Amino acid sequence: MSEQVADAPQDSPRDDHEADAGRDPLSMLFQPGAWRLERRLYTRPVYELYATLIALAVTAVIIGLLVIIVGVSPLDAFASLYEGAFGNRESALETLVQATPLILTGLCAAIAFRAGVWNIGGQGQFIAGAIGTWWVYDTFPGLPAPVLFVAMFCGAAVFGAVWATVASVLLVRYGTNEILTTVMLNFVIDSGLSWLLSGPWQANNTPYSQTERMVESAFLPRFFDGSRLHLGFALALVMAVVVHFLVRRTTLGFELRAIGVNKQAASYKGISVGAAVIAVMAISGALAGLAGAGELLGLHHRINFEFGGQAVGFTGIIIALVARLHPAGVIVVAIAFAGLLNGATQMQVGTGIPAALVDVIEGVALVLVLLAAVACRYRLRKIAPHG
Amino acid sequence: MEDFLTYSVILGIFVTTFKIATPLLIAATGELVAESSGILNLSLEGTMTLGAFTGFLVANETGNLWLGLVGAALGGGALGLLMAVMTATVKVNQIVAGLALNILGLGGAFFWYRSVYEEGGAVAFPTVDRFQTATIPLLSDIPAVGEVFFDQHWLTYFGILMVPATFIFLNRTKYGLELRSIGHNPEACDMRGVGIISRQYTAVIYGGVMAGLGGAYLSLAGGNQFFDDIVAGRGWIALAIVIFGNWRASWILGGSLLFGFLEATQLSLQASGVDLPYQLLLALPFLLTIVALVFNRSRSQVPLSLTIPYHRGER
Prior knowledge:
The complex is a heterodimer of chains A (about 375) and B (about 325). Chain A is mainly alpha-helical and about 375 residues long. Chain A has helices at about 1-5, 15-20, 25-30, 45-70, 75-85, 90-115, 120-140, 145-175, 180-200, 230-250, 250-260, 265-270, 275-300, 310-320, 325-350, 355-375; strands at about 35-40, 380. Classes of the chains: A mainly alpha (about 375), B mainly alpha (about 325).
């Protein structure tokens, strides 16, 4: 209710005190109570955007200082980071390649967090998706190309969804903390994949834990010669639109936003919280599963023990939070983070700064964005010294 | 299978149980105190990793393992302080703040390790002369019992000692009881003039310090080097143990020893070449954590305001 009232312009509460306060700014400033931090009744969305941008700028300053401590000029470091990320057509396209799974895992986290369901299992669901893709590929070898692709992506989505549903059923049925179960399931599926790769799915005549290479007709088509950018990128963009539509324009979207704000109120309104939680977790897991399919069919064409080594599931969580859970923001932040990952290699070669700097950048950026998101809900206001 | 059930193997399992339980015990008792004040610190995994690194760094640079422990405590405490600022003062959503600091701790440790020890793109994998077990005279001569209970690292004794210490602190001291009251009903505490924020800072920083020490056990006592995956999920298991232990110190001891025992059994099964896919054994502690969380659904001791930030004058 109060949000409606506050929809009025909130920047000009011209009360009587303000005239007094203008007289002697300096003494005002040092008088106790002259400035007060108070909560805005309504925060315009654009303020959140500004706050995020300021937080990212401060991140750049902090990382610059860190780079100076390591003994490199921050300008050199950032220049070579940018050069490696977006410096030419090739590297820019490669950045989009790396952004592809991150967009999907970012959406995976964003939609679940919107509903207040803390799915930390994007990484495991990503691997489940790759397993599902391979299972379809392995089980139905005779399918014609278009049907095979649809079937493989469906397999990925279903496996990812099922792996997420394990956690959501335990949550709904037994009240088991979903943060812990999804994290534990990440470790479990790592072992499961390792077993598959060294047992039933291991390629013949090789000591390595890996599957056979897929036949070329099962490769996702690529957009340009000389670049690895594949159809998965377009799929990721489409899924971002779908998620946006789902959250904003459907009944389920309304329900998931409602339970994200207040589960109890939502259930009094007649929303079946349990069903909504299970639905949103399944969608969330399916998105991560699609990311696994895209990586397998578009890039690697086989599963080996390094699959998932990039930890795209965890990076997706950071991306979703930095993007403040907006699908469009997820695309932008995922491309930016992919640029960091892509550019970091060049930075390491060029300046000797360890590529692990990217991990620090992600952590610092996330912490500052979270602090900024709170900060923009407050404002400093002058008030009368005696009032 | 017969080879497996020998005296020395079974004895070895019990000895290893305590070694594996130590970092869990230290981190989980610290987290118990933090959660008692109403703040859920999800960043244990990252905090333990950072502590394992800062402890290793200081020990390696100074050649003194005890200074290494101080370094680990400082590293863990620093992340704890950040967590306290974000949750007690700024009141960011505790789950999100914990995840953020988890990532910052992991990333900080990875980057710092490489910027100190990486030469030309390769890490030299330095090692330290790790802590030897502290053999307690006479008692350690008792057959079997001596080896299991009185020939362990100092940090293991410290971890076990923290169980009664944490119990007494939380249940028998004024400060500890006030802390728990804050965790249950901050409004009432505020009215009584009990400083909420300062106590939450103390509790969360203490939790960070303990997680750092738990991490240092891995790099300075259990092992003698640092590597990226050194904590390998133990931070998350420690968090699960607090829930599984229903926020009671004694059950946390039981939970830690249970996980230690399962892991130790798994390791020696693997070593003795029993014909089981070893991946199943690797997954076992995590599967059992889930099972344990499902079956131990009594939440009677949960701090009632856990994860709910306190704003004075708001309801």
